[in-house]
Amino acid sequence: MSDLKQQKCEACNAEAPKVSDEELAELMREIPDWTPVSRDGVMQLEREFKFKNFKKALAFTNRVGEIAEDEFHHPTLVTEWGKVTVTWWTHAINGLHKNDFIMAARTDAVLDAE
Ligand SMILES: C[C@H](O)[C@H](O)[C@H]1CNC2=NC(N)=NC(=O)C2=N1
Hints:
A 4-stranded antiparallel sheet has the order 1-2-4-3, covered by helices on one side. Helix 2 packs across helix 3 (98-113). It has a single domain (19-113), classed as 2-Layer Sandwich (Gyrase A, domain 2). Strand 1 and strand 2 form a beta hairpin. The chain is α+β, with helices and mostly antiparallel strands. The protein has helices at residues 21-28, 54-71, 98-113; strands spanning 35-39, 42-50, 76-80, 83-88. It is built from 3 helices and 4 strands, in the order αββαββα. Bound molecules: the ligand C[C@H](O)[C@H](O)[C@H]1CNC2=NC(N)=NC(=O)C2=N1. Ligand H2B binds next to loops. Residues 72-74, 90-92 line the site of the ligand C[C@H](O)[C@H](O)[C@H]1CNC2=NC(N)=NC(=O)C2=N1.
């Protein structure tokens, strides 16, 4: 159904377009487990992933770190016992770019691969 996770991030600078409200609604259908949140006026995508212990949470954190380095697009990762909170946004535009939705879909795929 989703092809977002097959897509590559585009290089992005301060002039890159933020997603519109319409695009946001459309893209959210492909990543239904994520929540759009606004922090200090900056829209972000967030999801909590649950694990059985710290070791599994840390392993997932590292896998997400690898896909981030592959695309040179980086999340905030908070690793706790049994839980990893992943937050994506595009610092360069202080908001959401399509890249963030691609990376959210790819983060879901990391979970599916484990
Ligand atoms: C210079 C380099 O392209 C930038 O610093 C990249 C690195 N990773 C990034 N990650 C995210 N999430 N947003 C960015 O704007 C961003 N910019």
